[in-house]
Amino acid sequence: MAIRCILYAILLIISSVFGQSSSGWSSQLTPPTIDPQAASLAGNVVALPLNPSSAFFHNPAQLPLLPNALSLGLFAIRFQPRYQSPLGYDQTSRELPIVPSVGYVTNRWAPLHVGIGIFGTLGFNFNYPADPAHGVPNNFYTDLAILSLTPTLAYSLAPNLHIGVELNPSYGRLRFKTPSPIGRIDVDVRGPGVFGTVGLFYTPTAKLSVGIGYKTPGAIWMFGNARVAGAGDNATVNFQLPQSVEWGVAYHFTERLTFVAQARWTELSVFEETQLKFEERTFLNRTAVQDARDCFRLGGGVQYILFPGVTLHVGFSWERWAIAASSLAPTLSDNTDFLFPFGVTIERGRWQVHLMGGLTHTESREVSPEQNPFFAGRYSLDESVFGVEIIRRL
Fold this sequence. Notes:
Helices cover 7% and strands 56% of the residues. It is mainly beta.
């Protein structure tokens, strides 16, 4: 019965994600987390087991520490990037994407712990309207959604040492529209891909936990149709997924109070190897980003049991921009962000309901014509997020 429920949930999420625009949380190229409960701690949970979805994204070695459970989460993101050009173009992309996640874990085959779920690996959405009076005859539009499955095995090497291995078969879709000197360019490609996730979880003392999660390099091979100034073409995108490693600690000061701290390194410079290619108009072939750098995301959080059945969460994280000024465009911008999420978990019997909200402060970027002759101007972002997650112990 539980397996049937998880299959229905996966089908529902696949249809919802690819039936509408999707966006990762924050302006960045990779999300800090994918489920609302972990998001309340700004994703700083590699050393703090919470639920199956959180474990799949951050550290699959947490599965032996979780009860048999099913988790369903849903984000709503108020995402409003703004672009102002020196020529007078000044528009805001107003988006409200929905980001779902689902996870299931069981110890039916103990000592192996088995899990399956689905989450959005990454995604972003920009849709700036046309403004012919200021030289923009068509809209700027980018919509990328990459969805990943999470078949996972975890094993306890010792009572305080656990490992987890996860294969992530994926599917992605990219839609891209932009005006150009030769006319409107319209691309719609999709296809499969794969990467992997491994994790380690260690509790050297009853109060201290240490976690490490590693995502391997991966790729999404997308292909489909394109139109250039109304004429048809074929297009392919070899989309490179960056490797990342996150490590952190959780310290239980008391039975009610827990502090977490975490760092994540992501090889975002690999996006320089992502290429868009046209079959006939090869002169339009280009890389997604010409100049990007690897980044660290740093953060921490506090979990506090207010009283039995009610737990509060507060988090913080920070990451600098990855895309250099010379590579910014309305179809892909990037800002330094500061995340300030909060949430509450209410537990009754076998059920947990988690509610969260969050604000983002981003630093605007001023790009001069010398740095970027095509898309100079000011890039800014206004964003907030709220979500709900339901967890059922089985």
